[in-house]
Amino acid sequence: MKKENKAKPDINKECKWWGIILIIVGIITFFTSGIITGVIVLLLGLTALLFRKDWNLALIGTWFIFLGGLNIILEILAFTSSLTESSFSWFILIGIVQFLIGIYLLTHYYKADGKEISEKRKMNKNIVIFGIVLFLLVVLISTWKAEATISIEQDMLNNIRDELFIYNSTDLYIEGVKSGALSYEFANSELSRIEERVNESDMKIKEALKYSIITYIDYFSVENRYVVSFTELSVTNLRVRLDLTRNELDYAKEKCLDSSGCNNGWCKVEGTDYCCPRPNMKIVNGYCS
User: Domain spans of the chain?
Assistant: First the structure.
């Protein structure tokens, strides 16, 4: 007995329902999470509702794969980053579901004509699918590499911050120079090495931000994301701390010629009975200057 061919999908009806669903989701997204994402989803819904052609399935499918890929990338990087607590997130499941929906829609687009399809149209659809896959690979891979770089370098800045502000490693250099255990040149070169690492991480983050699509979807620009991510604040604070430490080293390398009668390691001001915290200071109106 001859098998009956499956009926062709009703593209008009499918586009209608996808259009309605995406318009509702787009409006909700616009007012709750992302303006750009909401606008794109809303436009996809309106396009599907107005034109009701099979290429709408390709557009919507591409968007779902794109969003799913981004969610998966962000959740994996968040899970492996030391800046966040490692815990299971439902967003990775949402990303997987979005990815699968996108693949389903692309497959549906490809089969929308049923078996009654010319070789030319089949070739055109092959080209469209190939272009979509290539586009998604380029965007998602470049975003993955960029976000991984940002995560690694932010971890590095976080570790340097802990060393400088929590463990007070710079105090060891100052005390070492004061006691003579470390040379001024060595301590200063170590500070330069730390600053060089801070500058390197800062440069890598700024460069990586340019190549992540998340920068433009969620933050509109590289500058805005740089500030919102607190990278700018972290780098500024680290540089200020290093500059202050250098000033302390400049004072520490100068030995007191006379500290007799002075407490806390202060220096005797020549020709007076005053003591000041640094060598070669003078007394102006009764105060160290």
Answer: 11-117, 119-253, 256-289
